[in-house]
Design goal:
TIM Barrel; binds NADP nicotinamide-adenine-dinucleotide phosphate
């Protein structure tokens, strides 16, 4: 597995990570045994970037990751996050997600759930509009000084927030949605990361599974699946969006690879600082996703994909209206 330095001050990370959210919430039915086997297989393949959050089942996903890493802690970079209270991070507490007094409380909880004494990469899951970023990152910096956390990251932060945060402490990575059908970061967020030496951890790189060409209708999703609340998966929009998939399938067929690998190879082609973190709870998908590192897209393939997926190619926003407000601030 190819390794890269995560940001100008960060650790050596695998060029592709493993997103663990769907192992516990949101997508399909949990299967802890296969999820643990998937994390073990990731480590076997040299994937060290294991991504979770205290919001994924209020610590349930962190506990699963911690269990899987028992005895193999040294092989992993654990990236967890705090401050997404809307999704389930945090407990009964009057403090908002980015409050400097909340940050050490959240960290203690994550350390306990993960069963570790240090978190490799600790991140703010959503910027708290009610707290100056300097105060939140100042509290995160104290955790680094105390040896509880090694590196810092932000998620879904805007360019100004990134610039202000970096003045307080180096930020190793920004974890934000980026894929063929979510390219808005290319305008100012990705350039800001490059200016500041911040790696870009691309979440939902498979368009929450849509770009794999395995979910062209809602029948592919369980009635409880969270994607049903996402506008792009709404009945009318999914019908329009399924037409976007054809160029991915055509390139995949010509190369003898899977559509998911084309979607990941396109992201990898955007720069060595772009680290996709595809989510899966199945070894077969993890292996397929890792093999995307060997898929080479030539200039004609990239041009075809860029033309098929201009900004706003998808019908529907990438989150429901209410959640959009917390993005890019
Ligand atoms: N910072 C944030 O705000 C934020 C938000 C969302 C996600 N994330 C992180 O990013 C990670 C990845 O994003 P995501 O999981 O939302 O979306 P994703 O990686 O784009 O897609 C995950 C979906 O694709 C399926 N899948 C994965 N590989 C596949 C393959 N090769 N072929 C067919 N299907 C495949 C998975 O199925 P199975 O579940 O059946 O394996 C799952 O349904 C998450 O796990 C989470 O850690 C962060």
């Amino acid at each position: 597995m190819r390794k890269i330095k995560l940001g100008s001050n960060g650790p050596q990370a695998s060029a592709m990570g493993l997103g663990c959210m769907g192992m516990s919430i949101s997508y399909g039915k949990p299967n802890d045994e296969e999820s643990v086997a998937t994390i073990h297989r990731a480590l076997d393949l040299g994937v060290n970037l294991i991504v979770t959050s205290d919001a994924y089942g209020a610590g349930v996903n962190e506990a699963l990751v911690g269990r899987a890493l028992k005895g193999r802690r040294g092989e992993a970079l654990i990236a967890t996050k705090f401050g997404n209270l809307a999704l389930g991070g945090g407990g009964a507490n009057a403090l908002t997600g980015g409050h400097p007094d909340y940050v050490p409380q959240a960290c203690e909880k994550s350390l306990k759930m993960l069963g570790v004494d240090v978190i490799d990469i600790y991140g703010l899951h959503r910027v708290d509009a009610t707290v100056p970023i300097e105060d939140t990152v100042g509290a995160m910096k104290r955790l680094v000084e105390q040896g509880k956390v090694r590196y810092l990251q932000l998620s879904e932060a805007g360019p100004d927030t990134l610039r202000r945060a970096c003045k307080v402490h180096p930020i190793a990575a920004l974890e934000t949605e980026y894929s063929l059908w979510s390219r808005d970061v290319e305008h100012d967020i990705l350039p800001a990361c490059r200016e500041l030496g911040i790696a870009f951890m691309a979440y939902a790189p498979l368009g929450r599974g849509f770009l794999t060409a395995t979910m062209k209708t809602l029948d592919a999703l369980l009635p409880t699946d969270r994607r049903r609340d996402h506008p792009r998966f709404g009945v009318e929009n999914i019908n329009k969006n399924k037409d976007l998939i054809a160029p991915i399938e055509a390139i995949a067929a010509a190369k003898g690879c899977a559509p998911a690998q084309v979607a990941l190879a396109w992201l990898l082609a955007q720069g060595k600082d772009v680290v996709p973190i595809p989510g899966t709870k199945q070894r077969k998908w993890l292996e397929q996703n890792c093999a995307a590192l060997e898929v080479q897209l030539d200039a004609a393939d990239l041009a075809k994909l860029n033309a098929a997926f201009p900004l706003n190619a998808a019908a529907g926003t990438r989150y429901p209206e209410k959640q959009l407000k917390a993005l890019g601030i």
